[in-house]
Amino acid sequence: MTGCNCENCELKALFFQNVPETELVFLCNTRHERIYKKGETIIEQGAEIKEFSYLKTGLVKLFKHVDNGKNQIIKIAGPLDLINLLSIFSDRYFQYSVTALEDTTVCYVDIETVKEMVKKNGNFALDLLQKMSRMTDEIINTTLEISRKNLRGGIAFVLLYFARSVYKNNTFELPVSRKEIAEFIEMTPENVIRILSEFRKDGIIRINGKEISISDERRLSVIADLG
């Protein structure tokens, strides 16, 4: 684990702009960072919540263990996302797991410190509530969007999500496996593999190992919209 330098950290303005300077100094002296390798577990479903955490760099998946040993991905989170905000005020234990999809840095603050700040600082509390609401809205909207799509539409949606929202580039290394895509859109891995192959044969995407290149964004968008 490494310490944080708040003076040079953009997260200071994003998360703690409503915190008095004295409390901010205390946070800087007590918070810490941890680096996780791709595939490492950051949060385990059922574990006790002891710290407030947010993603500084990297990419993670939030997912819930469901019946028959399967997982349901509920969100892909990137830099500046609060990865434990969904459970932090509702329960003592995490209701979902978080795993690194690539090398990731997470910043931690003691949970009791954050709760005390919420009690004393209404602006800080409101800021957290707004972030929680936006995160919840995003999950609801994404879930509804995927649920109304067929298989081709769902996979097109996922590919465009990574290209537009995560990497801002039509060529990227897919950070999730075919199995994880299936968990995200609630399909079978076999169907995911089949549809990706169809997209490749149709000239919509190119596949080189884990690298995906969207060759025809317009057609992929139509499939996502109509799917």
In words, what does this structure look like?
By secondary structure, the protein is an alpha+beta fold. The protein has two domains: 6-135, Jelly Rolls (Sandwich), CATH 2.60.120.10; 149-226, Arc Repressor Mutant, subunit A (Orthogonal Bundle). The chain contains eight helices and ten strands. It has a four-stranded antiparallel β-sheet. Strands 1-7-3 form a three-stranded antiparallel β-sheet. A hairpin with a 5-residue loop joins strand 4 and strand 5 (71-77). Helix 3 (111-120) packs across helix 4 and helix 6 (178-185) packs across helix 7 (189-201). The longest helix has 26 residues, at 122-147. 26% of the residues are buried. The model has no long low-confidence stretch (mean pLDDT 87).
Percent of residues in β-strands: 15-25%
**Widest sheet, order of strands:** 2-6-4-5
CATH T-level fold name of the largest domain: Jelly Rolls
Round the mean pLDDT to the nearest integer and report it. Answer: 87
Q: Helical proportion?
A: 40-55%
What's the quaternary structure here? Answer: single chain
Distance between the termini: 45 Å
Number of continuous helical runs: 8
Extract low-pLDDT stretches. Answer: none
- CATH class (first level) name of the largest domain: Mainly Beta
Radius of gyration: 19 Å
The CATH architecture of the largest domain can be named as Sandwich
Number of domains: 2
Which SSEs are present, and which pair or pack?
Layout: H1 11-15, H2 21-30, E1 32-36, E2 41-43, E3 51-57, E4 60-65, E5 71-77, E6 97-100, E7 104-110, H3 111-120, H4 122-147, H5 151-166, E8 171-173, H6 178-185, H7 189-201, E9 205-208, E10 211-214, H8 217-226
Antiparallel strand pairs: 1-7, 2-6, 3-7, 4-5, 4-6, 8-10, 9-10
Helix pairs in contact: 3-4, 5-8, 6-7
